[in-house]
Prior knowledge:
The protein is an alpha/beta fold.
Amino acid sequence: xxxxxxxxxxxxxxxxxQLLGNHAEEVARRCSEFCTxxxxxxxxxxxxxxxxxxxxxxxxxxxxxxxxxxxxxxxxPARAPHSMAGAIHxxxxxxxxxxxxxxxxAYCVGGHHRGLYDSAELENALKxxxxxxxxRDMLRNSPQAATDLEKRIAQLGTLPNIxxxxxxxxxxxxxxxxxxxxxxxxxxxxxxxxxxxxxLRNESKKIDVSWSTxxxxxxxxTDSFAKDSPLNxxxxxxxxxCRTHGSSxxxxxxxxxxxxxxxKTLSSMAWALESAIRNDxxxxxxxxxxxxxxxxxxxxxxxxxxxxxxxxxxxxxxxGDNEEYDRWKLLTExxxxxxxxxxxxxxxxxxxxxxxxxxxxxxxxxxxxxxxDEVQMFPSALLNPMLRAVESLxxxxxxxxxxxxxxxPVFTQSFEVAGRESSNFYSIQIEIEDVVPYDKELFSxxxxxxxxTFKGKKEIATLAKELHQQRTVxxxxxxxxxxxxxxxxxxxxxxxxxxxxxxxxxxxxxxIRKQIAYIRERLSAGLPIVVISTQLIEAxxxxxxxxxxxxxxxxxxxxxxxxxxxxxxxxxxGDVYVFDxxxxxxxxxxxxxxxxxxxFIYKRIKDDVLNPNDPELIRQYYLEYYGNQVNxxxxxxxxxYLWSYQAKxxxxxxxxxxxxxxxxxxxxxxxxxxxxxGQEGEELISKLSQRVLLNRKxxxxxxxxxxxxxxxxxxxxHTQGVLKEIRLGQLSIWVLTYGYPCYDEARGLxxxxxWTDEIVII
Length: 762
């Protein structure tokens, strides 16, 4: 559909013109290729999307606008929205012959700049008088283009029917098609408008991905590991079982249930590589719940495979102010890299996104191997939509999925409890096979800890005395407040401050990382240390204590905490003490539900012997937790927007509302404050206070100085006059204008009346 009539799609910085027909054909080619990867039968729909997406630019007003804005004409610009004119044209072409396809085209073409619409808003936009006027202008201005388009459509032949796709998968399928269009459009526009950027992207894609080579690099690494102890022997067995399973199974949903310290990270990657070789997978995506452990995992993989193969995508990555940052930014736009390390937030919020920037990478998830680490961290309040997404990725998009955990939730169980807000638990219908079947002999090597359940409540002061008497101990509390109070009590007992470390999210991530490094140094040197932390340290942080205290919580958290105890089996047995505080913070939400479910389990275990490696014990815990404690598995009612009867029958999806509602981290009551931690932090906050613009490297470091505080704490700090609001263009942020005593080297951000404390100290 070459454009010989001179209609313009883009004009570059040098005044060169990309003709609209040429742009449409190139986007159609790319989009067809991407859609074929989503489903081999949908390549022609990709072509159709590419041909239609910018058809609204044929209107006279748009052509006048682009000529003026690019300096090709002095004629004044006109308001020229083009997306909805193209959507109306697409809808009108197909509404009588394929209503479902007409709806899909309208969603994708109409939203290819602003994002996917809600169904009612899309319908209103299609009927809007102004939009219809733009559509008529388009037809009048270039009837030949409309005729040529219809001829091209006729050449496509029979088009697939989305109604043949399972109802549960359809909303995700439309997002995948939308993603293919967005990426194709951006790539072609970039190739014409920004050749330097396109060249850098192409250079980045020239990495020759050989899964066999990466497998050999991992094997070389793991073959060097010692196998001279029962623990190391068991780890080697787990690793080999993962390799064998991955090399012999087709894409589905599998589970890797290994005890804490069982070598899950490398074993899961070994499985992923074997699976990628067997199934010719496009990439491996490793999904982790917390940014606090993602860097550790990414560093392991980079050391084994090489940095060029591993792409980290999370909020706290510092690539520096150089070409490597540019490469990273390009690859994070569409995840076009061999191994992706990302977070639950990035993965799932993208799967439910409506905006173009978040959706662009989705089509590259198809045909991937996806490892979800620490799946017990999936929040129960959003479990239904998350499990729907996991199941659709497997059943509809050929993803091979591995669910990793030391405490396997019961995701295939049915629960129906009358009187709950949402009694329908969305259980995965696929039978989830264990990659490593439970082997009592192998798992017994990891029975290296005695769990002591609590025999009554104790006060913070009493617990502090117990910790003070330990040479080396880790204590994990349920809240920041409890960690702070307990730390102060231990300090008051006169112990050397160098031996006491506090960790909580009242500290910025730069501070937390420094403290974890300090903890590891002292443990390696055999020096005494008392660590008092919130639960940020209990999942995925590789540390080893002889004694661990854990505040009463869900059984999964208690077992995760136990994974930090006698991790390498150097002692005949470590000790984990579960405690409940008389004067501590009261549990609420999922913490309270987990407490109640674990109490149910405590009452049923024999002789108070808790075996965390017993899969039946874990199963009973989750049966109680999901069956009797959780009030809603879809707290934000995502199902109502995407899987209601109306949505299933008439394809009326509310993509935009679902996207806004699906939020893994509830931030309604949280305000981010940027703190002057360390010399780097002080300099950055000083620059901001003086309205000095930050460069890219400084801006990324700034993200590591962030502390999220609740409304009452924000108000307390604001009242004390220690906060300053800084505007960075459209962005408004709050910075802490004082270092000590507002930000303490030991405890981080202090929200209490710090001026009173300072007077007392003086």
